[in-house]
Amino acid sequence: xxxxxxxxxxxxxxxxxxxxxxxxxxxxxxxxxxxxxxxxxxxxxxxxxxxxxxxxxxxxxxxxxxxxxxxxxxxxxxxxxxxxxxxxxxxxxxxxxxxxxxxxxxxxxxxx
Amino acid sequence: xxxxxxxxxxxxxxxxxxxxxxxxxxxxxxxxxxxxxxxxxxxxxxxxxxxxxxxxxxxxxxxxxxxxxxxxxxxxxxxxxxxxxxxxxxxxxxxxxxxxxxxxxxxxxxxxx
Lengths: 112, 113
What we know:
heterodimer; A: mainly beta; 7-stranded mixed β-sheet; 4-stranded antiparallel β-sheet; globular; B: mainly beta
């Protein structure tokens, strides 16, 4: 069966520090991968998506970047965090031909 | 106009009643429609998907889709306290080289004893 892993579960980082969140998928190949952010009391906002290795599409201009170095690995990064980067970051995958999207357990990021 | 709109609630229903959740979307090119349940502090969990006009039933859940009216709904029969959560409507469409899922802001459901 397919599983999706995200880590860490929680993170507290100072303003101006770098960020790296990792997401990996097991049990499938060539999935579409997504990064979403959910700010407190807000809906899910799509940040980046990837249809293949090295292919990244950005939805919202911001202080973040994404990379896909391997088929089942998706990384969200920032060089310098802002207070406004705080939120619940969720990775999701969609297998081609399967309409459902499955989410990881998320990373709660607090920038202080 | 928001791409996916939902009433934020809270929607309060007594235990055993039917809860009705509604959603409208703006893009007529949308292909697939989903309902996710999200408990506080947790990630969203897929509970229903629907792709064609009409009703789709799965246990206590029924999803309804009307593409002409750009309207999606979710009915929860025999509501239980464990159904108390935020329900997210999501719409999938192809664009920019890939499929993307757009969410509404969610409706908070409270099932009262």
